[in-house]
């Protein structure tokens, strides 16, 4: 029987296993984008107990924490245990134009969604430009 061996994929697997058991918080992948007058952040947290998810704002720092606990299976012989457990942590620096009092979050099907609204003073607005013609009459142009 012919077998193929890819040393690079084996190295990736071994490195991933070593990093999985490192102390400290785990990495949580996110998508962050702006949609109109708000920013939307979606974080993948599969298998996390919703009660362990903590989202807080301290000044201009948004912090997301979550805990995933290992399933307790006494007396079993593990053949593979690749799903990471532990604490997940991400921090984001918020800009000056954020309405931090209106930030909201929801958790559904393993995805944490955080809505970050733009403050009224940071929203785009029209500025009136006044010009004077030769006859000294005022004309208003909206830009």
TrEMBL record:
<dbReference type="Pfam" id="PF00011">
    <property type="entry name" value="HSP20"/>
</dbReference>
<feature type="domain" description="SHSP">
    <location>
        <begin position="21"/>
        <end position="132"/>
    </location>
</feature>
<dbReference type="InterPro" id="IPR002068">
    <property type="entry name" value="A-crystallin/Hsp20_dom"/>
</dbReference>
<dbReference type="InterPro" id="IPR031107">
    <property type="entry name" value="Small_HSP"/>
</dbReference>
<dbReference type="InterPro" id="IPR008978">
    <property type="entry name" value="HSP20-like_chaperone"/>
</dbReference>
<comment type="similarity">
    <text>Belongs to the small heat shock protein (HSP20) family.</text>
</comment>
<protein>
    <submittedName>
        <fullName>HSP20 family protein</fullName>
    </submittedName>
</protein>
